[in-house]
Amino acid sequence: MAFGTQDETDDVMNEINMTPLVDVMLVLLIIFIITIPVMKHAVNIDLPRATNQPQEAKPETVRLSVDAKGDYWWNENKVDDKTLPGMLQTEAAKNPQPELHIRGDKDVRYERVAQAMAQAQQAGLRKIGFITEPKTN
User: Fold this and answer.
1) 99/118 Cα distance (integer angstroms)
2) pLDDT band (50, 70, 90) for residue 132
3) Neighbours of 28 (CB within 10 A)
4) Which residues of 54-85 are buried (b: 16+ CB within 10 A; e: fewer)?
5) With 114 labelled, which of 21, 103, 127, 137 sits at a CA distance of 20 to 30 A?
């Protein structure tokens, strides 16, 4: 090994190394081959038409309360036993039919609540619900 000879190791390279350039160009070519068909591909679909008509209003809820004495209250207005069936039939004839929410006092006899339910069923009301207080621990 001679340290003084420079003929073999110090030859200046006059050419550009093309391998990294070719690698970059191949990667770009693959990216363009994959993305161009995706951008031009379209599916023909028939989209629905939107309208500006307002939606149908939800029917109001009727609140029928039975207090501790057994009196009926129709949306916070006192009602006697004779007019209640007529009011229930009027509500049953509406389209769409409103919901009937029955609130019974915990001290009232169950018989009064059952009578209100029976009258609502005879009038033709189909949506009857009960309102209760949530149990607290």
Assistant:
1) 15
2) confident
3) 10
4) eeeeeeeebebbbeeebebebeeeebeeeebe
5) 137
Whether residue 20 is preceded by a cis peptide bond, meaning omega within 30 degrees of 0, is: no
Distance, CA of 112 to CA of 114 (rounded, Å): 5
In contact, 85 and 116? CB cutoff 8 Å: no
Strands 99-104 and 72-74: unpaired
What amino acid occupies position 114? A
- pLDDT at residue 43 tops 80: no
126 phi, psi to nearest 5 deg:
-105, -25
CATH numbers and ranges of domains, the chain: 61-130 (3.30.420.270)
What is the rounded distance in angstroms from the CA atom of residue 65 to the CA atom of residue 102? 6
Q: For residue 62, report the phi and psi dihedrals to the nearest 5 degrees.
A: -100, 125
